[in-house]
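Morning!

As promised:
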Amino acid sequence: MASKVLFAPVAYSRYEESQTLPAKFDRLLEASGLAERVKDKSVAIKMHVGCGTSYSTIPPVFVRKLVNFVKKNGGNCFITDHYIASRNPGMRGYTEEYVGAPVIDACGYFGKYYYTKEVDYRSLKHIDIAGHIHDADFLIDFSHVKGHGACAYGGACKNIAMGCVTDRTRRQLHGLEGGLLWEADLCTQCEQCIQSCNHNANRFSGEGEYRVNYHNCTLCQHCVKVCPTGAISLDSHNYEDFQRGMAICTKTVLDTFEPDNVYYINMLISITAVCDCWGMTTPSLVPDIGIIAGEDIVAVEAASLDMIKFEDLIAVGVPEGMELGPSGHLFERLHYKNPYTQLTMLEEQGLGSREYGLTEIR
Ligand code: SF4
Ligand code: SF4
């Protein structure tokens, strides 16, 4: 059966406050069924608080509305993310004074408060769940949607998998990134591969080992094609390991909550090419779309991806001179990785279904 997904569009018909996205967000929350479910619960609102000079994370006005809604309905909530101490969330308006709830580091001030669960997927052996997320009764996964270099797309899954865990788990997840194979025996160190890379994604280490930064790498294969000895090859399935690792991590975090105690809200505004953790904001790739919400993470992610269309591309959102891929989703043309793979992995973990029915909030 198709999962119900709420959609509040930015499109408006009149010059009235009631037609704006914040006003529609109020109506979406009323229609969400959250009111009864957060009563008397401790509620973790997980978002990305941004860093550096970024200005495209969720605008504080929406955070404040969500906090007010939870409190009005008897929930006790807090805003959380990791690296809070170094990210200065107050610089982007996320202060307790304005949003109405404490803004705390998910792993505690020193980053040492977590619960470890063992998993076994390639080099991923532990999921260290952030202590304050683990201890909450209810999780609202409040995500800013954007592109992502390593997995093409960052939304609800990424907000949990990379944001509700410790540095050790994040490192293990990043350790799953891949896609290019290098054979040292064949390499003559001619460096043609380095010169051919337009994305500043590869280098040789001090020990002469070929290294790839998969955040920057688009798997364009320029380095593969120019290599005169065939020392570099593409293992096109390797990048999927990172996506599967994220899905496993997401499931492990979600397993700490009762099934009805999680809700997903995706903000499809200021949709940029790369993740908020870059500490900068580039121009939007497409016009703002609105807000997608629901109880099925896969359905919410599917609806979000489906609404981001290549035909709506705003050219200035892509770096000048960047060559886009010939086909697929906009994020695939940009990052050369299929963003829907993440959804397949989430389905594989039994976390939901891509089948959804939209209910529009007007
Ligand atoms: S595949 Fe393309 S982006 Fe990646 S390292 Fe090679 S040349 Fe650079
Ligand atoms: S192009 Fe091939 S042979 Fe030359 S440095 Fe790169 S990997 Fe080695």
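The longest strand covers residues 114-121.

Hope this helps with the figure draft.
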